[in-house]
Amino acid sequence: MCWWRLLGGDEFRRTQRGNSNAWCQDNEVSRYDWRLVEKNEGLRRFVRNLLAIRRRFAVLRLDSFYTERDIAWFDCEGTVPSWGGTDRTLGMLIRPSPDGAGNLGTSLCRLCNAGYAPAVFALPDMPQGSAWRGLVDTSRDAPDDIHAPGEERILSDPLRYAVASRSMAVLSARLMSLPARPAGRQTWFTREEGGPHGNG
Question: Smallest Cα–Cα separation from 92: which of 73, 119, 105?
Answer without folding.
Answer: 73
